[in-house]
Every structure is written in C-alpha cells, then in structure tokens.
Sequence to fold (216 residues):
Amino acid sequence: MLPPTLHVSQHPAVLHKLGILRDEKTEPKKFREVVRELSWLLGYEALADARVRAREVKTPLETMHGHELGERIGLIPILRAGLGMVDAMLELMPTAEVWHLGLFRDERTLKPVEYYNKLPDAASVDLCLILDPMLATGGSATAAIEVLKRWGAVTPVRIKLVNLIAAPEGVEAVAKAHPDVEIHCAALDRQLNDKGYIMPGLGDAGDRQFGTGKAS
Ligand code: PRP
Ligand code: URA
Fold:
C-alpha cells in the first residue's frame, strides 16, 4: 500500500517532460534543461502548504495587503545528481539557503557513502527540501534524512523529499524509517532491477546530466 506521505504529480506538463527525460536519445544539454523544468514544477507542488505572511504592497494605483513566503527554507541537493535541481528551486524560493550533501551509492553494496557535508552549524530553518532526481533503494534518501535530523531538523522543522522518479522499494524504505517526511515525485515506477536501477527509469541521472558513463 502506498503511504499517505507520497505525492505523485499528475500534472500534464510534468507527464510531458518526463517522457523527454526518460528518452534514451535525450542528450545531456536537453536532459539538464528538463531536470530543471521538472524541478520547478515539483518544487511548486511541494510548496503548496508553505506558510505565507502578510506584506504591504504598493501597486502603481494603491496600497494593498500582499504576501511573502513565511518559511525559512533550506535546500539540500544530494551530490551530484541533485545539483541540477537547485537553480529551479532557487527561482521559486530566492531566499532559500543551499546546503550541499555529498552521498554516493556504493555500486556493490548499494549502500550510501557520505563524502561531503556543508550544513551550517545550527538548524535555523522551518522547511528542508532534499533534492535528488532518483529514489531507488531509498538508502541515500534515508541517510540524508538521518543527517538532517541528527543536525537538528526535528519537529517543528519539516523535511520533504523532492525526487523526479521513485521506485516502490525506496518509497517504502523512507516511509517506514521516516513516516513524517513527505515525498514529492513526478513518477512512481515499477521496481528496481538486480543492480538497483529503477525500471523503467531513465538510467543514471548523474551520468545523463553530466555526460559521464553510459545510460544505465
Ligand atoms: C544516485 C541518485 C541517488 C541515489 C539513489 O546517485 O542520484 O542519490 O543514486 O539510489 P538509492 O535510493 O538506492 O540510494 P549516485 O550514487 O549514482 O551518485 P551521483 O549522483 O554522484 O551519480
Ligand atoms: N540512481 C540513478 O541515477 N538511477 C537509478 O535508476 C537508480 C539510482
């Protein structure tokens, strides 16, 4: 059964762009462009319940009661594939801070290995958005959530995961270990293959963005 914390976008623009992203013929330049566009759309959906505060706005005609984002937001891109999601998120949330977290998945064990952490000293934030195109076994996402919670991102601080493609195995792992973390994704795929790749997926999101390796 799917957890209530999972949000899979049904937006036609998301579905359209996902088709381009998955296509093996899509070259890195276009791939990066579509990662960015999808990130914007998913970020928009993930922010739907963000708090706003009142702000007086003077239009050329009169003064009115407007709004501004009331959340202090931290963006946590998981290196390296999550890097491609940052610019779009910053467009949506210009005051967000960006804290890089380096994790790679050991190809043999499929376990995450942490190699870089640029979190600030204190968790002075309301909402953390973890950015990673792929949620496969859930090992990297779970490790990132644990790093954030150890650092101080605990209630009332909220953590959300923003992925482009998720596998049921990864969703289950995250929901079981962290039922308080919402997952926003563009697609929930069928399953993992025996190498831990998402099927049908899109191959290796890092390689496809940065032109390294082969597609799967
Ligand atoms: C990919 C992806 C996630 C992770 C997902 O990164 O970007 O971080 O795998 O797999 P998991 O859910 O099984 O942990 P990868 O380790 O390939 O590193 P890269 O971004 O440097 O290519
Ligand atoms: N990481 C990727 O980049 N792709 C997958 O399918 C699984 C993990």
About this structure: The domain at 6-50+70-210 is CATH 3.40.50.2020 (Rossmann fold). The mean pLDDT is 95. Residues 28-46 form the longest helix (19 residues). The CA atoms of residues 25 and 139 lie 29 Å apart.
